[in-house]
UniProtKB/TrEMBL annotation:
InterPro entries in alphabetical order: Mntp/YtaF (IPR003810), Put_MntP (IPR022929)
Transmembrane parts of this sequence: 6-27, 39-58, 70-86, 114-133, 139-159, 171-189
Gene name in the database record: mntP
Membrane topology: Multi-pass membrane protein
Domain of life: Bacteria
One Gene Ontology term of the molecular function aspect: manganese ion transmembrane transporter activity
Protein name: Putative manganese efflux pump MntP
Location (main, coarse): membrane
Signal peptide coordinates: none
Similarity comment text for this entry: Belongs to the MntP (TC 9.B.29) family.
Native organism taxonomy: Bacteria, Bacillati, Bacillota, Clostridia, Eubacteriales
Organism: Clostridium sartagoforme
Amino acid sequence: MGLLSIFMTGIGLSMDAFAVSLAKGLCLKDDEVKYSFRVALFFGGFQAIMPLLGWWVGTYFEIYIRSFDHWIAFALLGVIGGKMLFESIKGIRSGGDADIPTECERDEFSYKKLTILGIATSIDALAVGVSLAFLNVSIIPSIIIIGITTFILSFLAMFLGKKLGQFMQNYAELIGGVILIFIGIKILIEHLSGLA
């Protein structure tokens, strides 16, 4: 798995955080840079920590499942990407207004709330970390790329959310799902063609 694939994985994984940041951007009134930086830091940080934890777990079990690890990576990325596709299509069909906050809460950018959202949007990255262990990918450059990618996209999404509202939210998840499924297929094809 090369740097381009890791970067694309980072984009795919960051789409949940991107979508949530768009919604959070609706609540921006003042201190835009401060709150955008805070949201991006939480999402980017959790998006980097979770693959590291997954990689650690995957490394521990790698010896037992080396012969079929590519199938696990393919299945994990396919399920995560498929879930993102399903959620985005469901949101688009419902008009995309189910998650629009009608009134922003006072603690919208509190550390507690951002921690919960950071964990929720990075659970998928935990599973991807397991896949990275099976593929013998160097984890430190990978989590740096994934974390920075998520940070930048979340930061930009806050401002886009303020300007464009809900319009882009479901489409972000759609794109992320397609990217992760594509990478899962690519991993499987590369491994199977290597056996031929």
